């Protein structure tokens, strides 16, 4: 490429002309421009051109060639992207708004969202397929649960207030569901029995009771202080808005303080005999993932929350199984498929379970940490 001297450096005009002609001939011989761009290569200085004018012309020509080649590629790529945008409808980043953990909405309704919707739909279809041998697996669990020897069979939330009139029983089921979070069945059952014995299992009685009294009666359920506060609020809401009864829809139940999706579905199933969804607690969440029955939408990864498990499970499990699946798997999780050291050797469906014998059967992480502390002391 021709390199001209800087303006302060001056040569004779004949020397500049000679240098320019020499560089021009060399450039024509080596540059691909001489083969592809005859118009550019044929530019010659005329006798009427001044040295400075021709120098600037040739310098500009060479500069344009190099930059134009680079720009041409970029322009071609941009043109293709713009053409693809018109054909496929690639969305602009500004067209989207993030509105919650699981919702991606488009600000303007257009064809731009069509490819995204198609991808989500195909992922849902793939995830919606039922897992292999699920009916055989479920039947095997039923056989292991036929003895009904799990705590949930006698002390579960659905047993609360079973001898009470319908309206009072519905409230008892709601209270039991509230107290069941982070609490074992036998502890929760004991708290319900103490409230019942003290005539504090109705909205009116709880609304008029002292919060400290409620705390003492429900202790030692998990987070009993917070639950006592929420129980007072729920009783007041039931009296003010529902005439002493409980809400009859999922949406209304979820508004109550301390009530989550698992509790709301359980109350709807048991209290109102209205199955709107699967009640998924920690046992159902764990076992469904161990069996490979559920996965996160569009992936093969395990679900990370009970609510994700519920959504995934409802995609394929027949609706008639939605109600009985909870006590069935909860009891199975309490007796065989336990959180730590599951009893795979005693399980009748271990040959169908992809997680069988994979979890450590030795000491729990707690005992390991205890050993570690002991070793440090020694």
TrEMBL record:
Disordered, as annotated region: 26-52, 358-378
Catalytic activity, EC: 3.2.2.-, 4.2.99.18
Catalytic reaction equation(s): 2'-deoxyribonucleotide-(2'-deoxyribose 5'-phosphate)-2'-deoxyribonucleotide-DNA = a 3'-end 2'-deoxyribonucleotide-(2,3-dehydro-2,3-deoxyribose 5'-phosphate)-DNA + a 5'-end 5'-phospho-2'-deoxyribonucleoside-DNA + H(+)
UniProt-annotated location(s): Plastid, Chloroplast stroma, Chloroplast nucleoid
Sample GO molecular function, one term: 4 iron, 4 sulfur cluster binding
Coiled coil: none
Record's keyword annotation contains Hydrolase: yes
HhH-GPD domain mapped to chain residues: 179-335
Cofactor: [4Fe-4S] cluster
Protein origin, superkingdom: Eukaryota
Single biological process term from Gene Ontology: base-excision repair, AP site formation
PROSITE patterns: ENDONUCLEASE_III_1, ENDONUCLEASE_III_2
PANTHER family: ENDONUCLEASE III-LIKE PROTEIN 1
Function field: Bifunctional DNA N-glycosylase with associated apurinic/apyrimidinic (AP) lyase function that catalyzes the first step in base excision repair (BER), the primary repair pathway for the repair of oxidative DNA damage. The DNA N-glycosylase activity releases the damaged DNA base from DNA by cleaving the N-glycosidic bond, leaving an AP site. The AP lyase activity cleaves the phosphodiester bond 3' to the AP site by a beta-elimination. Primarily recognizes and repairs oxidative base damage of pyrimidines.
Protein name: Endonuclease III homolog
UniProt source species: Pisum sativum (Garden pea)
Source lineage: Eukaryota, Viridiplantae, Streptophyta, Embryophyta, Tracheophyta
Gene: NTH1
